Amino acid sequence: MADREAKTNAISGQPQKITMDFDPPKKPKINKYAFTCALLATMTSVLLGYGIGVGYACMIAPVYTAEISPASTRGFLTSFFEVFVNVGILLGYVSNYVCSKLPKHFGWRVMLGVGAVPAVILASVIIWMPESPRWLVMQGRLGDAKRVLDKTSDSVEEAQIRLADIKEAAGIPENLTDDVVQVPKHSHGEGVWKELILHPTPPVRHILIACVGIHFFQQSSGIDSVVLYSPRIFEKAGITSSNDKLLATVAVGFTKTTFILVATFLFDKIGRRPLILSSVAGMIFSLATLGFGLTVIDHSDQKITWAVGLSVAMLLAFVAFFSIGMGPSPVVYSSEIFPLRLRAQGTSMGMAANRLTSGVITMTFISLYKGISIGGSFFLYAGVALVSWVFFYFVLPETRGRTLEDMEGLFGNFKWNFPKKKNNIKEVSNGSNGPNANGQVQLGSR
């Protein structure tokens, strides 16, 4: 029997298959060089809250990380940005708690000065980081881009494919392989804003809506109100001790950081859409329940223990649900969906919408809860989260495992434009049933 199979294979001219040919491909290991570059780039976000430098970093770090990462681990590496945001928040809470024990004239100086430590570290190591391979290609430096791709790809073959895709996106002919080549003028960025805003193609319009929308809804859920005003929220929930409020605030930072770390390992395993949709669903439930608990406390003349416990638990649950999906998703998603020619400007628009929305939400929170009550504020945030779930379901396609150059093909048709079901039966050219040129039988369609 084995001899017969070998003979058949010899006749067909096909190589004989062995068991190893059918084994599933091994999961690629994390590229250490790309991991280090991503780690250093995204460390800038630990200083979120400090004036102009971090404003640059909020846009540049995610784009750089997405462009330098292989597709297999891009979600994992790009989510580091949000990890360090939360590490910075947690360190801020801890330093506040520690500095509150110091003399007032000294404590605030220590709290402000510690922010210089990570900045000094970053300034000393960032000069050793390579340029983005896509930026190098756009400058015509193909040799430098190839060397970076060789270091940051999972294999030599992947590096070659990535370079070919980037060259095609930049408008550089495939047969140009010199270390330095002339780049077409249109790939330098002329007319980007016109193509992005004034006369976008359907895919670009869809991408822009998805980018700005995911950043807007992330902040309009009220997360920064919880982060910045958590002591006041805990006070409204019935925790009056200053020490207890600070400790509860540290718990918020710890929960946020822990679940962000969990999310980093899930992006490339289960995809962006499942994480976002399940995260927002949990946020809706926790925000509505938190609003209910705070409303009960607000309308009671005495301390209701179960309502206090429910409110604290739901606040931490909201932070956990947010962090496991909605927290890192905007940075990961928006930094990978734009075409090469529009990526920097498009991502900057998303981040601008993020920071603008955050500023509006945080500056209006106190006036909001004074106007419609603390419980009413979280009911409102729950309503916004519900709208965001519908938006994400219909607007955001899955991007897991796709190369950056393939992303534009995913956009242009919104979810509600369901394609008609195609007939899977192929029609032979003469309209009759019979074998084709390869000896395979095809049925004619009616």
From TrEMBL:
<feature type="transmembrane region" description="Helical">
    <location>
        <begin position="246"/>
        <end position="267"/>
    </location>
</feature>
<feature type="domain" description="Major facilitator superfamily (MFS) profile">
    <location>
        <begin position="1"/>
        <end position="400"/>
    </location>
</feature>
<dbReference type="GO" id="GO:0015144">
    <property type="term" value="F:carbohydrate transmembrane transporter activity"/>
</dbReference>
<keyword id="KW-0769">Symport</keyword>
<dbReference type="GO" id="GO:0015293">
    <property type="term" value="F:symporter activity"/>
</dbReference>
<dbReference type="InterPro" id="IPR005828">
    <property type="entry name" value="MFS_sugar_transport-like"/>
</dbReference>
<dbReference type="InterPro" id="IPR020846">
    <property type="entry name" value="MFS_dom"/>
</dbReference>
<feature type="region of interest" description="Disordered">
    <location>
        <begin position="425"/>
        <end position="446"/>
    </location>
</feature>
<feature type="transmembrane region" description="Helical">
    <location>
        <begin position="353"/>
        <end position="372"/>
    </location>
</feature>
<feature type="transmembrane region" description="Helical">
    <location>
        <begin position="76"/>
        <end position="94"/>
    </location>
</feature>
<comment type="similarity">
    <text>Belongs to the major facilitator superfamily. Sugar transporter (TC 2.A.1.1) family.</text>
</comment>
<feature type="transmembrane region" description="Helical">
    <location>
        <begin position="106"/>
        <end position="129"/>
    </location>
</feature>
<keyword id="KW-1133">Transmembrane helix</keyword>
<keyword id="KW-0812">Transmembrane</keyword>
<feature type="transmembrane region" description="Helical">
    <location>
        <begin position="306"/>
        <end position="333"/>
    </location>
</feature>
<keyword id="KW-0472">Membrane</keyword>
<keyword id="KW-0813">Transport</keyword>
<dbReference type="InterPro" id="IPR036259">
    <property type="entry name" value="MFS_trans_sf"/>
</dbReference>
<feature type="transmembrane region" description="Helical">
    <location>
        <begin position="33"/>
        <end position="64"/>
    </location>
</feature>
<feature type="compositionally biased region" description="Polar residues">
    <location>
        <begin position="427"/>
        <end position="446"/>
    </location>
</feature>
<dbReference type="Pfam" id="PF00083">
    <property type="entry name" value="Sugar_tr"/>
</dbReference>
<protein>
    <recommendedName>
        <fullName>Major facilitator superfamily (MFS) profile domain-containing protein</fullName>
    </recommendedName>
</protein>
<dbReference type="InterPro" id="IPR003663">
    <property type="entry name" value="Sugar/inositol_transpt"/>
</dbReference>
<dbReference type="GO" id="GO:0016020">
    <property type="term" value="C:membrane"/>
</dbReference>
<feature type="transmembrane region" description="Helical">
    <location>
        <begin position="378"/>
        <end position="396"/>
    </location>
</feature>
<dbReference type="InterPro" id="IPR045262">
    <property type="entry name" value="STP/PLT_plant"/>
</dbReference>
<feature type="transmembrane region" description="Helical">
    <location>
        <begin position="274"/>
        <end position="294"/>
    </location>
</feature>
<keyword id="KW-0762">Sugar transport</keyword>
